[in-house]
């Protein structure tokens, strides 16, 4: 960290900041809290699960559709920071409201959660795009990887605090109900997210931009239309996005389905939480390692290495039987999960025209969001047809093979960047 500029450190710390939301609100605590609140209100389990699915789908769809348009507007001078701040404030305020709204008001809780999803997703569009403003192309792999590593490390602290509060409340060691302990965990999440975003708000500014025009909103739509018309000029970018769509779908599916997969193997919830925690800890140094190796062997090479590791993971999953097997699988995932995500971000940042970074990261966000559809369906369909969860996970190998083949056709980032500069 000492060798990084103030802007680089401030940008990296946002990964540390928003990681609390990812693990406590998206993954670990709030889904269970909402299910319990809905059950207490008399909703059937299937009904509350349906509402949970609808809420996630609608919020994700809304921010995904808006992403390229918002990005196109944010490319004008002074807009990127404003948009980042707006979505950040939206996310933090409504995350804090999760701690304030009574648990009996399950519908209001769900609406607040949807707004947090929009705030979190919207902020990340502009955060990712700020990578071109805070560092040089030569350092993008390193800085992006440090961001993911800081996120993994940072996520463990509020995670331990939140889970400890809930467990101590469950065992009556603390004079709190589980509901209140969960609400305190949500407040910790909002405070963590808000506090560690201050350096980003203070020190990071838009360096690459287009000069403002009289009607930035209508011009944003117009620029988006022009980009679509010139799509052939950005062939390396969209070829990469196509590869990214397939392999990141596989990565995300393994992350989101891991708990259900472990449960099917008979692993209890306590062990699953321990494995989840260990995965976060191990993933941090490996994310940094991927960044260093990418500087030596090129980012595209290391992305292909990451894809190959995931092919091994899918194959190993087919033969999975014991808790030890699941631990080995989790550590394999930890070895490449952060690296493949970090290098995807930095590789794409090198490909985009810097003055249009927000618009293109809007497309990046769409491909990331919609890459959460095919993988879970493939796992579910294969598992149902074969009656075997292992076969469902093994089927994801198709996504990694397709993604790898397409990625091999993408020009090296420096060649693609030269091509982009010529077309501009």
TrEMBL record:
Keywords (A to Z) from UniProt: Membrane, Transmembrane, Transmembrane helix, Transport
Gene3D superfamilies found in the cross-reference section: MFS general substrate transporter like domains
Domain Major facilitator superfamily (MFS) profile positions: 236-424
GO cellular component, one term: plasma membrane
Membrane-topology annotation of the record: Multi-pass membrane protein
Molecular function GO labels: transmembrane transporter activity
Protein name: MFS transporter
Transmembrane segments: 12-34, 54-76, 83-101, 107-127, 148-168, 180-201, 237-260, 272-290, 302-320, 326-348, 360-379, 391-410
Organism domain of life: Bacteria
UniProt keyword Acyltransferase present: no
Protein location: Cell membrane
Primary location: membrane
PROSITE patterns per the UniProt record, alphabetical: MFS (PS50850)
InterPro entries membership: Atg22-like (IPR024671), ATG22/LtaA_families (IPR050495), MFS_dom (IPR020846), MFS_trans_sf (IPR036259)
Keyword Metal-binding: no
Pfam families: ATG22
